[in-house]
Amino acid sequence: MEDTKRRKVDAAAMIRQAPLAGFARGIAPLCLAATVVFALSGCTSTGLDLFGSTKPDRSISTSTIATKGKTSEAISDEVTVQNAVTSADVGKIGKNPIPWANASTGSAGVITTVMEDTTTGTHCRQFRTTRHSYMGIARFMGRTCMESNGNWQLLSFQEEN
Question: The pTM is what?
Fold first, then answer.
């Protein structure tokens, strides 16, 4: 038993006396300090001014910003609604709502009204729908008409106030 203890003590003494072990013990705090300095330097070099300016940062906007033109998500939703409106059998659905969903944008809604109009000599459908998206719930009103080649053209798709 005493022999085993002596071997453990001798091994520990050898490790302490080894030049590499002493070097590692001396450099470890320096490595830790360097890591902390480098990690925190990223915070201050990217504009996080902790000790300097007292002026507010006006470069950050937290309100909704109006986009110019339509986004690809909005256009995709419009096409999805148009497809639902134009493929519906108006004679069979009556006043029943038509649900729609766009898997590519995550938006969904319900078409509540579809009215056919042929007074201008063109087959058109006016509709109202909701759109549930990451921006909230909105109501839209639109109009789509069939062209002479049989394709449907979306003429309007506007958010209701």
Answer: 0.56
